[in-house]
Amino acid sequence: MFDKKLRVLRDKILIKIGFSIDKLNPNIITLTGLFVGIIGMVLLTQHYYLPALLLFILNRLLDGIDGYVAKVTLKESDMGALLDIFSDYIIYLGFLLSIAFLSQSNFSVLFSIIITLSLYCLNLLAWSFPQIIKGRDNPIQVYSSGLIEGFETVVVYIILISFPSYWLLTINIFNVLLIFTIIIRLTNFNKN
Length: 192
What we know:
Oligomer: single chain
Helix content: over 70%
Structural class: mainly alpha
Strand content: under 5%
């Protein structure tokens, strides 16, 4: 919902601070972010919530920078776009699985996470299928808007990592928002 505006803001900030990126490889940034995120998942399973939160935020910041670096250095590629989305899903699913690991005795949280994982699959289809079926002029990712996009997902995960006692409530609210996002994407696809 806010992703397009946040990308413009990110670009302006990085340009103003004179972020030198000529020699950076966007795929290395993506892989570094993935590594940082995986360490955060492991820390979360050991109840180190603050370090896990900080590493998750660092992962998301690196994820936001890699695309900018690719665009500015003219290193955009289908492989980079695929690596980026794989990294996103590894992080999002991995943090959910870390929470599931910590919730082994709480069937309600586990069941809600199973629903979230299923909705992620449906959302991925609703997001990507229109690009596949209708074709694209640009080989780089094309984003289909929804109620839940990257920024909103990051906020939900920050809440999840920060407030374990609210896991069930947060996951269930997120699931409802994911359902609305899927409906929006399918409706938009049907309109075109």
